Structures are given as C-alpha cells and as structure tokens.
Amino acid sequence: xxxxxxxxxxxxxxxxxxxxxxxxxxxxxxxxxxxxxxxxxxxxxxxxxxxxxxxxxxxxxxxxxxxxxxxxxxxxxxxxxxxxxxxxxxxxxxxxxxxxxxxxxxxxxxxxxxxxxxxxxxxxxxxxxxxxxxxxxxxxxxxxxxxxxxxxxxxxxxxxxxxxxxxxxxxxxxxxxxxxxxxxxxxxxxxxxxxxxxxxxxxxxxxxxxxxxxxxxxxxxxxxxxxxxxxxxxxxxxxxxxxxxxxxxxxxxxxxxxxxxxxxxxxxxxxxxxxxxxxxxxxxxxxxxxxxxxxxxxxxxxxxxxxxxxxxxxxxxxxxxxxxxxxxxxxxxxxxxxxxxxxxxxxxxxxxxxxxxxxxxxxxxxxxxxxxxxxxxx
Length: 378
Known about the structure:
Layout: E1 3-5, H1 15-18, E2 24-26, H2 38-60, H3 78-109, E3 150-155, H4 159-167, E4 174-182, H5 191-195, E5 202-209, H6 216-225, E6 234-235, E7 238-239, E8 246-249, H7 252-272, E9 283-286, H8 287-291, E10 298-300, H9 330-333, H10 347-353
Parallel strand pairs: 8-9
Antiparallel strand pairs: 1-2, 3-5, 3-8, 4-5, 4-10, 6-7
Helix pairs in contact: 2-3, 6-7
C-alpha cells in the first residue's frame, strides 16, 4: 500500500510552510532489497528528481498570486515563497541521495550465481492471473493455441522491451506474446521473488507464432540481435541471474536451430569484435527436461508487466544492448534437412528495423506494416 512520506533530513518547519512542501509517494521502504529492480529505480529517480522542483513551483505559485499574502496580486515570491522553493530543492536532493544509496544496495544484493535447487523458494500452485486478451494484438493470452501454432520461449534481459520487439514483427505471424519467468525452479513465482535470485528463473517471453507466416529462424534472429548474449548474468545495467540470456526449445528441430544459430552468431560477433564478453553465455534448455521435474518451462508474470510498454503511464525503459551485428545468412548455417525453416522476413526488413539501442522504446506499439519492410512470406 502506497504511503506518503517526507524524506529524512529536512528540518521541521512551521505549519504553513510544511503544508507547501511536497511529499513523496513510495511503494516500499527506502532500503528494501526486494523492492523495485535497478531498471525501475533508475527511471524512478530520473522522473522524480526532474519533476519535483518544476512541479512544486507550478503547483503552488500561479500567475498573479502573491505567496506572502495569499491573495491575488503582482507575481512576487516573497520570503515564504523562496523558503518553499528551498525546501523543494532540499527535498529533491535528499530524495536523490536516498535513491542512489538504495540502488547501490540493491545492486550488491543481486546474486550472479544460480541458486541451488534445494534452496530455491517454494513458490505456489496458483498461477498468476492475467488479462484474457493481449493488450495490443487482441488475441488470447493463454492457450489452448490453434493447432498450427508453434511456441518459442526466450530471455534476453528486461522482458518489457523484449516482448514489444517481438509482438511488432510483421506479416501476421505473431499470434500472442506474454512475459514471465522461465528456466528456473520455483513454481508460479512473483516478480519480487524472481528479483531475489532465489527462484532460478530469468525474465522471459513466450511467443506463439504461425510458422506459415513467420519462421522460427526469424524469431531467433530477432532474439540474437536484440541483446548482447555475451554478458553472463545480466544485460546492460540490469544485473543478476534473472536477466541472463536463455532459449527454451520444444522439439529436436528447434534444438538444432538454436544450437546452430548460436554458433553462427558467435562467429559473427568475433569477426565484428563486438560483445562485452568473449563468448556467448546464452543457456539452451529442453522444455521436456523441465516438465519432467514437475515444473513448467514458463510461468506468467503479473498482469501489469504484460505488454507493459504499450500501456498508459509506462516508463520507457530498456537496458538491452544490441550489438548491431547481423545473424549470418541462413544458408550458411542451416542444419541439414531443415531448409524448410528458411526465414520469411526479407533483408529489407532488417535494413530498416533491426534492433538498435533504444529502438524499441522509440518505436510505435503497433505491428510493423508489411509494406514498411518489403515483401513478407515469400
């Protein structure tokens, strides 16, 4: 439950002045390591420190209002007005200091080693409740899916931007997307539990697509090019096991394509001299091996995380680190006998829409029109 608090360190003042000082709405204690994640902390600090003083002044000093007398007259700040502004500045500075300390504490608390299975959080049997329809596509959020659909689960950093990039792929091939927690141990974890590093999960995206309209290889290419897969337990500013890169396959053909594309992209990164690390650290999981343990390969995240970047009031955050290195042509790494998985997105699409830093944040929410990226499905 949100509660208004005054930042510690601001001296007590008289009632009239105290009533003019802004209060901060905080959803958790200042030093709570299971509160917001580093990506949310960074954005929240920027939002509040940028807005506190301008909003404070504009909300309290209207044109023609005399602050000292409290009646309309020539615009004059007066002593009380200047003291109020000073209070706002001190409040903003104290808030920034508290937020920086909080983020530093959280960064230190994020484990970068996997939790032992026996030490993982127990979770719960009840699945996360989500909306029935996809916020952008209008399609069902949960199955059963049409028989012709295929599924891929991947993780490449903050799931907000990962999901948006995929649902925008053109050609009508994307049936549904969802964000959640994947490749871990804890059943039906909460966001806070996943952020603790004690579930074994990483933030992931479930993609349901029509292979007649969009190839598995098209989705794989977006996955690889939309992040830096050499960064180990993290992506950009987001660190911890819950941000590690991963793929989850559902059949042998998908397995071969995942492994072959990894090898091909590793070579491309080396030739280009790109990537924070020297080797790709993406983990590849077999969905069948996961379910054999009585665990699902994907657990839905909270409803407010679903299609987050398309919703009103969303904070435009994405820490993904695309290296702007293309996956080599399919013909150069296609496993024998899997030529029928040839990509359907033409190179003209990638020329115009390939992932780049902050490109997802700056793009519209709608699906990319086919006419905007060359022929699709050829």
